[in-house]
């Protein structure tokens, strides 16, 4: 009888010890999860900005190993929708947030705050084999609306023009339509030619241009490479054409230039505030230049 009682007491003590250790493990795990959430950032949005966002994230995490930053693309509209749905901390956008998006955000308890973090010039690109070197904005608009359909109308070879555009959810698509097709006039209703091929990313446009001598497309200057030819663009027939260089974008000489933006769902706090501060710092702006975009100063 005494032996049974001793065994029972020993088992009880062992059970209590195991339960205590398991409880400690759960408490520590909870703390680690809370810690992880405090130092994590979800960034979503512009495909134009995704490489820049990733470069910022890598540099930031090297300085602060406790931080965990995930950067994904999908388009500016996708990022802003995620911000409205509270499924990301920062939306990267190559266009301004729309009034209807602001209204949707407010209905969901989100108050978007805008940060201009860099600038970009939209490069208009063709094959290296294409003899055309420059276009006016009017010619560019007529091309993408399907009014000019053969390169011979622009001094090139007798070849049909293949139009490459970003998808409609892309901020680059929206900006090009508003600035080039509609000349910055919100009351105008011009649209892309229905025959334009809608590409899923800027890189997809770059890859297609490199192998298609008939194609023309556009993307942020950070995606340009020697496999495509960048065209000089003139605001009108009387204006001098300019290339989308850093200097021309900063000075305003290049017509198709735009800000690159970050949006948060409220005034940023903690690691989100610190990360945006890093992007705007001297080091962050040096990274902007390194990935071939335009610093804001």
Written account of the structure:
By secondary structure, the chain is an alpha/beta fold. It has two domains: about 35-120 and about 260-290, D-Maltodextrin-Binding Protein, domain 2, CATH 3.40.190; about 120-255, Periplasmic binding protein-like II (D-Maltodextrin-Binding Protein, domain 2), CATH 3.40.190.10. The chain has helices at about 1-40, 50-65, 75-85, 100-105, 135-145, 170-180, 200-210, 245-250, 270-280, 280-290; strands at about 40-45, 70-75, 90-95, 115-125, 135, 160-165, 195-200, 215-220, 230, 230-235, 255-265. Strands 1, 2, 3, 4, 6, 7, 8, 9 and 11 form a nine-stranded mixed beta sheet that branches. The protein has a two-stranded parallel sheet with strand order 5-10.
Keywords:
D-Maltodextrin-Binding Protein, domain 2, alpha/beta, disordered N terminus, 21% strand, 11 strands, 2 domains, 42% helix, 297 residues, nine-stranded mixed beta sheet
User: Low-confidence parts lasting 5 or more residues at pLDDT below 50?
Assistant: 1-35
CATH fold assignment of the largest domain: D-Maltodextrin-Binding Protein, domain 2
What is the architecture of the largest domain at the second tier of CATH?
Answer: 3-Layer(aba) Sandwich
The CATH superfamily of the largest domain is identified as Periplasmic binding protein-like II
User: In the residues, how many domains can be counted?
Assistant: 2
**CATH class identity of the largest domain:** Alpha Beta
The portion of residues forming beta strands comes to 15-25%
Number of strands: 11
- Helical amount: 40-55%
- Which descriptor suits the 3D outline? globular
Distance between the termini: 86 Å
Question: Sheet bearing the most strands, described?
Answer: 9 strands, mixed
